[in-house]
TrEMBL record:
It catalyses: adenine + H2O + H(+) = hypoxanthine + NH4(+). GO terms for molecular function: adenine deaminase activity. This is Adenine deaminase. The gene is ade. It comes from Azospirillum isscasi. It is an enzyme of class 3 (hydrolase). Its cofactor is Mn(2+).
Length: 569
């Protein structure tokens, strides 16, 4: 909404103390992320703006700020709301009370299922959330040509939404091999958004390839997993977004990178974080306290989570406790542990009532799993040599190892070997355009019987299932078809845990508290199966992502990501 002359007069009068401010946080302390100092005084708000600091003010409404420390609202610089397993409206209700006042999302999960229909759903939600949900236009739908997605978005499709008020630019550009091979469709998207913000996705990219990638106007990367990798990217002018999601946890490795010189060029993001982890650990507040606990300088951690994040995305109206800035503030009981007392968004204290009256957005994609029931025979892998490429799952990482292991055969077919932690993994195309099945083996799940199946399979979201027996794998996939998406755990032919995700096969229609309870029960069931992974379903969901090294699987088969080609054997 455009500011008026009367709005400015009101701000000026309240800043000068000629009239009472709309809201004043009295006798408080606040962190100045410019100087690093802890300042004392009042903070005066007029509508959705800060109009006074370092001075004394009276307010029409006042908050006693004694014992509290005020910081700018936190900014999640890269998130897939779909991966929280709840709708954007429930994501809003889940994370805003924890201090996340701005979130920059890439809806490429739903776009890979529903195309522009999914994108429009997210734009409609973004106009109704209390937190400021910004939308990046999904650049890789599909992510690659090595998989079958449910939709395709070309440059012309994205340009139709370029000037939407919630759109910042182009979302994570995962197809870096397409950049190096100068693929026309890839370059068309980059050219269409030249001069606008373009998010990066460049795991392990370095040297001349990193130079080439950055030369296309790509500005950041959330896939950095080591300090040397981060430093090369920073030296070359790339903003590094430090991630801690439900699977990929990079704060520990990257906390040493947070220094006075680097903090203006950093940010924090969750990428993929479910309601159970948010309930048990937190959201952006968790990343902040983790970095501080690991020894990163406190003021520079908060700078990265607020001011630096905002500046990296051209959001110059937020990220400081300073006059003229948006009144998105977090009141903390303790600065070091980022203990949130309350949150102010757009000049108003957030309460449960804050979320009442938001516009309802109708769900989409409720019949998106177009896969016929399967049988155990559909999982057969013909024997073609005993030594096979096997996906090596690495706990807490979406990077995988490319193992070469001997896989046993029985009756002319390769079979799982649970005693050696070799399970079968299959991906079934579920969008109704073909009947592809990718078959292979994975190591790292460690359960000896049963199966896990998911309709969340980044980024094309086909049905991915891993198991010790073909029979249990079939039961799991068929239950997913009945649920129209979600997570299913099966043991000895019986479903022992499930979570329905019927909205595009990605999101629940239930409140986030209900999803949290289901995830907690599901996690317990999988642990009883013997799987030690902290987030087995999300770990499974990343195995079909053929833009993350080193070995993945799609509905077309095993993919050697380093060669960007299908594996024959």
């Amino acid at each position: 909404m455009a500011v008026t002359r009367d709005d400015l007069k009101k701000r000026i009068g309240q800043a000068l103390g000629e009239t009472k401010a709309d809201l004043v946080i009295k006798d408080t302390r606040f962190l100045n992320v410019v100087t690093g100092e802890i300042a004392a005084g009042d903070i005066a708000l007029c509508g959705d703006r800060i109009v006074g600091t370092y001075e004394s003010y009276d307010g029409a409404e006042e908050i006693d700020g004694r014992g509290l420390t005020v910081v700018p609202g936190f900014i999640d610089t890269h998130v897939h709301c779909e991966s929280t397993c709840v709708t954007p409206m429930e994501f809003d209700r889940c994370v805003l009370p924890r201090g996340t006042t701005t979130a920059i999302c890439d809806p490429h999960e739903i776009c890979n299922v529903l195309g522009e229909k999914g994108l429009r759903y997210f734009l409609d939600c973004a106009e109704g959330t209390v937190l400021d949900l910004r939308v990046q236009l999904s650049s890789c739908v599909p992510a690659t040509e090595l998989e079958t997605s449910g939709a395709r978005l070309e440059a012309a499709d994205l340009l139709r939404h370029k000037d939407h008020p919630k759109v910042l630019g182009l979302a994570e550009f995962m197809n870096f091999p397409g950049v190096f091979h100068k693929v026309d469709g890839v370059l068309d998207k980059l050219a269409a958004f030249d001069g606008r913000h373009i998010d990066g996705h460049a795991p392990l990219l370095s040297g001349r390839e990193l130079n080439a990638y950055l030369s296309c106007g790509i500005r950041n990367c959330h896939e950095t997993t080591s300090a040397p990798e981060a430093m090369e990217k920073l030296r070359k002018g790339m903003q590094v977004l430090i991630r801690d999601g439900s699977v990929s946890k990079d704060v520990h490795a990257l906390a040493p990178v947070i220094q006075p010189e680097t903090s203006p060029f950093l940010g924090f993001c969750t990428d993929d974080r479910n309601p159970l982890d948010i309930a048990e650990e937190g959201h952006m507040d968790h990343l902040i306290r983790s970095a501080i606990r690991l020894g990163a300088p406190l003021a520079h951690v908060y700078r990265a989570a607020t001011w630096s994040a905002a500046r990296g995305f051209g959001l110059f109206d937020r990220g400081l406790v300073a006059p003229g800035q948006r009144a998105d503030l977090v009141l903390l009981d303790d600065l070091e542990t980022c203990a949130v007392n309350r949150v102010i968004r757009n000049g108003r204290v957030v309460t449960p009532a804050t979320f009442a009256g938001r516009p309802a957005v109708s769900p989409v994609g409720l019949r998106s799993v177009r896969l016929h029931p399967v049988t155990a025979e559909d999982f057969a892998v013909p024997a073609a040599g005993s030594v096979q490429s096997v996906i090596g799952v690495l706990p807490g990482k979406i990077i995988t190892a490319h193992l070469r292991l001997e896989v046993p055969a029985r009756n002319g077919a390769l079979v799982a070997d649970p005693d050696r932690d070799i399970l079968k993994i299959c991906v079934f195309a579920r969008h109704g355009t073909n009947q592809n099945v990718g078959r292979g083996f994975a190591s790292g799940f460690h359960f000896r019987e049963g199966a896990l199946a998911s309709s969340v399979g980044h980024d094309s979201h086909n049905i991915c299932v891993v198991g010790a027996s073909d029979e249990d794998m079939a039961v799991a996939v068929n239950r997913l078809i009945e649920l129209q998406g979600g997570f299913v755990a099966v043991r000895n032919g019986a479903v022992v845990g499930e979570l329905a995700l019927p909205l595009a096969g990605l999101m629940s229609l239930e409140p986030f508290e209900t999803v949290e309870r289901h995830l907690r029960s599901l996690r317990a069931s999988v642990r009883e199966m013997g799987c030690p992974l902290a987030e087995p379903f999300l770990q499974l969901a990343f195995l079909p992502l053929p833009v993350i090294p080193h070995l993945k699987i799609t509905d077309r088969g095993l993919v050697d990501v380093d060669k960007f080609a299908l594996v024959n054997a």
